[in-house]
Amino acid sequence: MKQKNKSAQLQIGETIFILIIFFILLFIGLIFYSKVEMNSIANTKQLDAEREILKSALEIIYLPELSCMDLSNELSEGCFDLYKLEAFTDLTQDPNYERTMRLEYYDLFADSKVTINVTFPKDSGISEFVIYNRLVENVSIKKTFIPVIVKDPSNEQNYFGYLKIESSKK
Amino acid sequence: MADKRAEIEVQFNWIFVLVIGALILGFFGTIIYQQKSISETKTTHEILSRLDTVFTASSTSKDKLERIETPDVEFRFNYPDYFVDGQRQNLKGKFIFAPSYFKGSSFSIWVKSWNLDFAIVNFAYVTNPTVRYYIIADSNDPFANSINESIERKQDRDSPENLIRMDFIEQEDMNKIEDKGYERVRLIYFQEDNGDAPSAPPMPSSLSSRPNSEVSALVVVPSPTGEDGDLAFGKLYFYKKNNQGQFVSDDSEGESSFSYVGRELLYGAIFVDKAAAYQYLFNKAMNKLEIISKIYEQRADMMNEDNIEGCGYPSQDFQLLSEAAKTSNVEGINGIIGIIPVLAESNERLSAWSCPPLY
Fold first, then answer.
1. Is a pLDDT exceeding 90 seen at residue B243?
2. ipTM of the complex
């Protein structure tokens, strides 16, 4: 009789032990799965950030307030009008319009710095235009470069350059 | 004693099994529920990301109409945000003219450049097969017909997959409009300018018992001189349905009457169904026009300073345009209407003199 009782207790003990091992394995599996998911989310975040910068670049290239216009008053892709660049830059620094420009273009540029540099010909006398600057300090920066053309409409001269977008990483 | 103990142990075993079983089922049930929720959030996030790309592309495209397929979701537009199945996303300054609500597995997007002799910004018009539009006008009204045709030209009318469900109905046939079960119905009335604000338009009998939010109206009063050529302008009056089955002014969130300058703004008023939505986008458009005018003013000044081959650039006209856009009231709109042809003429003259263009 006593042996029967001890056998029953052993049976319950076995079951409890199995369940404990089962739950431990389950939690290990969950921890592993959550690590994988977190990595996946981090990758997605990075891809999203890169996509955002490319979208901004695409919109900047097609901005009517910066782009060259052809003879039929249509926008020329990838071409910036030199006078418009100067006017835009001046307007962003004009105390009367600085706030308006910042509010108008924050949706597009957010916390970034947008610069257009002229690189060729080197003796063009034109260097760079900082058309927007709301870069957040003390955070990591992501930079994107896109080749563009800057056109001087007064003499139809084209210059090679690049659009640089420095984006504050959140 | 031993027998009674065995009975107690058997019952205890079953209780133990039930409790543990419930715990395990509950645990997995919680995980499944959370995963379902995470999966739905991920799907909505992907839809929002894709939509953002579509809307970004719209700001760079030329005149085109296309259909975008999505999962079966609910869209709400409450500017400056839009919602997909309740998840909010900011439009980030894009000009998207859309109904306040639609649901479905696809929507159409039509992109046009708002152009007052120079490009200002791209407008995107969004709609869905569950939204029905009726243009109600005199069949001899050339302007109403031209608006209808410009939309029809963008799509194959015989195709069952019409991207914009729009019909032209004569005023006297208005009560022949049937309630075909569309989720939203928008009626666009064209009236002549007789100097007074129009009275509320009549409600087709088949729509009078529809829920108020599902029926809206727009009255377009083109200016007599604003119908020819590309620079169309006039007045717009927004109406909503009340509980008595009639149209009343949609002024609960602000003004209900506005102007339009250029057909593109008129199309925008057709595709939004609330006055507040049009007001928000109209004000943004005027801000944009003000900034672009200011840039062109400074550009003209710089070109004058550089004294390019004796070419003279009318920067003061851009200054007037910028100030007119800033006020954006009736005087401002009249100012814009007056200056644009002057600028166009100046640009043609510069082109004839082989001078660099004005814009």
1. yes
2. 0.84
